[in-house]
Specification:
The chain is mainly beta. The strands form four sheets. Strands 1-20-17-22-15-13-14 form a seven-stranded mixed sheet. Belongs to the pirin family. This is Quercetin 2,3-dioxygenase. It holds the Pfam family Pirin.
């Protein structure tokens, strides 16, 4: 099937702003609903959040969602109703399986500096599973110039943390100027420029906050125009479709 490419620019994202939060949404989220922009593949949420010092999200519930958090700058303190506590920092991948129901809070762990992170949600293979939590550090040297599988549920292709979805995997990389990495081949691919700027054949230049949604992605390479950090979802099914 022919590949399809859709570029979503940073400025097109809906924005939620409060005195302590700036949250930019790649897809419909909360009060920002667009029936033509609810998901891509299995990815429902790609929120680019900045939380002010000493503030954050109080305890709130989730169900039946795989929630992956990737910190770009600062430190994010996590606490949940299962008793898990920890501080997420750049290079530490975190996954929370909401399953049958969980409460959690996310607070800026600094009283002086903001925390900047991307939170991403995919659906699990099954509803009502037991809630779970996992985190694992991915070294800076590993991320440097290499597309690293940091979260995966794809059989035989493990990531640093595990997803309860056998059709999805999240990759990350940090690129120096001029460095290039190949993109996975997949029926659905979501490329998000978390920081910096890159070029992509057939797409052109991409700036911080830009995203590309590929359908029937055939690979290709991304090259950094300046120091950059990328998040790439590889997905082998779409929401609502039977699993292969």
């Amino acid at each position: 099937m022919a590949a399809h490419v859709e570029v979503r620019r940073a400025a097109e994202r809906a924005v939620t702003t409060t005195p302590w939060l700036t949250s930019r949404h790649s897809f419909s989220f909360g009060d920002h609903y667009d029936p033509d922009n609810t998901h891509h593949g299995l990815l429902l949420v790609n929120n680019d959040d900045i939380v002010a010092p000493g503030t954050g999200f109080d305890m709130h519930p989730h169900r039946d969602m795989e929630i992956v958090t990737w910190v770009l700058q600062g430190q994010l303190a996590h606490r949940d109703s299962m008793g898990n506590r920890g501080v997420i920092y750049p290079g530490l991948a975190q996954r929370m399986s909401a399953g049958s129901g969980i409460l959690h809070s996310e607070k800026n762990d600094s009283a002086t500096e903001p925390v900047h992170f991307v939170q991403m949600w995919v659906v699990p293979d099954e509803a009502g599973i037991s809630p779970g939590y996992q985190q694992h550090e991915v070294g800076a040297q590993v991320l440097d110039g290499t597309l690293v599988r940091i979260a995966s549920g794809i059989p035989g292709r493990p990531g640093a943390i595990t997803l309860q979805n056998h059709n999805a995997a999240l990759h990350a990389t940090r690129l120096r100027t001029g460095a290039t990495v190949p993109l996975p081949r997949a029926p659905y691919l979501h490329l998000f420029v978390a920081r910096g700027a890159v070029t992509c054949p057939g797409v052109g230049g991409l700036q911080e906050g830009d995203a590309v949604r590929f359908t029937h992605a055939s690979g290709g390479r991304v090259t950094a125009s300046e120091p950059s950090e990328l998040l790439v979802w590889e997905m082998h099914a779409k929401l609502g479709a039977p699993s292969p």
